[in-house]
Amino acid sequence: MADTNKTDKGARTVLVIEDEMDMRFYLMAVVRSLGLDPILTRNGVQGLEVLSTLCPDLIILDVMMPEKGGALVYQELKTNPLYRKIPLIVFSGVDFHSFAHYVKMVNLGQKTKIDFPKYYVEKSADPDYLKEVIRKCIPLNRIDDP
Fold this sequence. Notes:
This protein is of the alpha/beta class and 146 residues long.
């Protein structure tokens, strides 16, 4: 079940779509350390349900998940005009080249091509690097880093 309770009405929100509980808690801690409000979901179905009622400031998306996996969610985020402009970080154990190959295959024969992810962070990345990428997605003057 998604945690959609916001602690501060003015807080900037980050939708986390990640199936692994330990990674959800890790991402929650990183996001909160930047003064942002995480909304945690366990799979693509839950993530898209949250998007139907809330427009977050950022989405962090895992690739390999049950039910509706991150690759399919990525495709929907990039083709749906309601979601296309929301900043997105793909956060995955799958290396970038494998995911890029998936995007190339999806684009074959399509009139409207989906873009490669602007921000792709492998799960083994240093937390400071992840924070740096989050800061690039949400303007620095809006994030408090204690």
